Amino acid sequence: MNQEINKMIELLNLESFIDRLTGTYSRGMQQKLSLAISLLNNPKLLILDEPTNGLDYESKEQLRKTIQQLTEELNVSILIVS
C-alpha cells in the first residue's frame, strides 16, 4: 500500500477493518471508507451529501468528530449538505 492510503487508514481508524470485506462493514464504517477514498487526492474542498444519513446517534457523533479532525489535520474545507 502506498503512503497516502496508509495515512487515511490511520486517520480514520480503519486498521482493524482493513482485512475484512467491505460488504461486511457497518453503515458507519462504509461512510468512513467513502470519506477516506474521497480524501486520497488531497482535495481543497470536499462536499458531502448527507454523510450521516442512516447512522445511529453515536455513529453520527463519531463521524462529525472525525470530519472536524480531518479539516484540521489535512487542511481541507468540508461542506456538509443535509
Low-confidence stretches: none
| CATH class annotation | Alpha Beta
Q: What would the CATH topology be?
A: Rossmann fold
Task: Tell the overall outline.
Answer: globular
Order of strands across the main sheet:
1-2
Q: Note the total helix count.
A: 3
Output mean pLDDT.
87
The tally of beta strands, per DSSP, is: 2
Give the percentage of residues in beta strands: 5-15%
The helicity comes to 40-55%
CATH-wise, what's the superfamily?
P-loop containing nucleotide triphosphate hydrolases
> What is the distance, rounded to the nearest whole angstrom, between the alpha carbons of the first and last residues?
34 Å
Q: What are the defining features of this structure?
A:
82 residues, alpha+beta, Rossmann fold, two-stranded parallel ribbon, 3 helices, 12% strand, globular
Structure description:
The chain is globular and about 30 Å long. The chain has one domain (3-81): P-loop containing nucleotide triphosphate hydrolases (Rossmann fold), CATH 3.40.50. It has three helices and two strands, in the order H-H-E-H-E. It is of the alpha+beta class and 82 residues long. The N and C termini lie far apart (34 Å). Strands 1-2 form a two-stranded parallel ribbon. The chain has helices at 3-11, 27-39, 57-74; strands at residues 45-49, 77-81. Strand 1, helix 3 and strand 2 (77-81) form a beta-alpha-beta unit.
